[in-house]
Design brief:
Elements lengths: L1 H20 L11 E5 L4 H18 L3 E5 L2 H14 L5 E4 L1 H9 L6 H10 L6 H6 L9 E13 H7 L7 H11 L16 H13 L16 H15 L8 H9 L5 E5 L2 H5 L19 H4 L1 E4 L2 E2 L5 E11 L6 H11 L4 H5 L7 E2 L10 H6 L3 E2 L7 E2 L6 H10 L3 E2 L8 H9 L8 H4 L4 H19 L1
Helix pairs in contact: 1-3, 4-18, 5-14, 8-10, 9-10, 10-20, 18-20
Length: 458
């Protein structure tokens, strides 16, 4: 079955390459430039359309902004390539970049030209690595968000705990702070859920666990992986009862029901009361809406057993499909990462940390400006993160993002790692661990599942 699947995929890819190659042999075509974006909410779409209009005013090139979630992008990209109708620029994650590159769907000349033009040193090296599987970038890093550990500084101080630096510190603090009235931590535990997949990889990375060894064999049964799963089980035991997902974890911390939270950097505007749909509801928040922001700190990268820093992060990258109007696409990408960059980041700054930190003349220009971009979902309350968090916290968010880690991305195992994440393979095996199964047994089941995915992909 796997061999048949690969044969079908090979035939499909050949058809895709043929049709995409015939799409626009001279790199240009008539009509508006088409930009696919995964930021689909009305307010974020409006901001992106305003940026596109500014580009049109400057260049005369019309832009059609098409909101499209990542899973829809994947399907539409394949069918569009077969029909010879592809977008010109797409905002994509590293796993999409890896899969599309493997299928021959991405132009690689434009990203290389853009990076060279803007200056390789102005981009996060780690973000660049995530989209460089074969020696050259297949997309251009734009921005990203990282999984952070948010913790209650007031509760840590009361318990005499130091800020956590390692996964072991987090597990120990969770158990110390787990009381009858408040959980020690809340994190993703719902079996098979994408948020649990993200949490698991973040925890395993922090534990020094690698997906594959130097030979390319699945390494999830290693002592470090087993140790990380043991700490994950301890944290889950000190978490809010029941299966926890992206919504319930956020709600629990905002309600003051947990002393720590593993979540994305998007949480910072919500802690500060800048997201009306998700307001802080803790008892203290009734009198002081900023209570959680004032009494919370965050750790981005945790220290692994080897002393290295590890933070799970997801970047968004500007890709140019084969068959696009490459001349216009390059101009638009360079505009989005130059004159229009702060507007692009301003769509949701708490979740769009710059992967281009500055310019050749001012290497930190965009990082500094990002800290002052208004965050939040209501025009009446939008405010920069720097107004709600101290300079060290804001600087830490931006600096730790330059060291994002992900399994496989930027290597020959990128497609495997992407498929493993998108299929939530590891999260499907987590249930027994939460019910008391031995971490080594769960690691073995996860490794078996990963090997099955690897066999299909590689």
């Amino acid at each position: 079955m796997a061999a048949l699947t690969r044969a079908v995929c090979a035939a499909l890819c050949a058809a895709l390459l043929l049709s995409a190659g015939c799409r626009a042999q001279d790199g240009e075509r008539d009509g508006a430039l088409v930009f696919w974006t995964p930021h689909v909410t009305p307010d974020r779409l409006a901001q992106q359309e305003a940026t596109a209009r500014a580009f049109t005013e400057e260049t005369g090139i019309e832009v059609e902004v098409v909101p499209m979630a990542a899973e829809d992008q994947n399907q539409s990209m394949v069918s569009g390539a077969v029909g010879g109708n592809v977008p010109d620029v797409v905002l994509i994650a590293p796993d999409q970049a890896a899969a599309w590159h493997a299928q021959g769907l991405l132009d690689t000349e434009v990203p290389a030209e853009v990076v060279e033009s803007l200056g390789p040193a102005t981009f996060s090296g780690r973000a660049m690595d995530m989209v460089t599987p074969d020696g050259g970038p297949v997309a251009v890093p734009s921005d990203g968000w990282g999984q952070v550990l948010v913790y209650r500084t007031d509760l840590f101080e009361e318990a005499g705990l130091e800020p956590p630096e390692t996964l072991a510190d987090v597990a120990q603090a969770a158990e110390v702070l787990d009381t009858e009235g408040r959980a020690g931590i809340v994190l993703g535990t719902a079996p098979g859920a994408p948020f649990t997949t993200q949490t698991l990889e973040a925890v395993l990375l922090a534990g020094g666990c690698e997906l594959v060894d130097r030979t390319g064999a699945v390494a999830l049964e290693s002592p470090r992986c087993v140790g990380a799963l043991e700490k994950y089980a301890r944290m889950a035991g000190a978490s809010v009862a029941g299966d926890q997902d992206v919504e319930t974890t956020r709600a629990a911390y905002l309600a003051g029901e947990a002393a720590m939270l593993f979540w994305g950097s998007h949480i910072f505007d919500e802690l500060a009361g800048l997201a009306p749909d998700f307001p802080p509801t803790c008892d203290e928040c009734a009198d002081d809406p900023a209570f959680l922001a004032e009494n919370s700190a965050a750790v981005g990268a945790l220290r692994t057993p080897t002393g290295a820093a590890a933070q799970y992060g997801l970047t968004l990258n500007l890709g140019v499909p084969r068959g696009a109007d490459t001349a216009s696409a390059r101009r638009f990408v360079e505009y989005l990462l130059g004159p229009g960059y702060l507007e692009l980041l301003g769509v949701s700054p708490e979740g769009r940390i710059p992967m281009r930190t500055g310019t050749a003349d001012d290497p930190e220009a965009y990082t500094r400006a990002w800290a002052d971009l208004p965050a939040g979902e209501d025009d009446a309350t939008r405010a920069p993160l720097s107004e709600h968090y101290d300079e060290a916290t804001v600087r830490g968010i931006a600096e730790s993002a330059q060291g994002f880690r992900r399994w496989g991305f930027g290597t020959e195992h990128a497609a495997f790692a992407g498929a493993l994440a998108s299929q939530n393979t590891l999260a499907q095996e987590v249930g027994p661990l939460l019910d008391g199964a031995a971490p080594a047994d769960v690691a073995r089941a996860m490794a078996d599942g990963a090997r099955a995915v690897q066999a299909d992909v590689e």
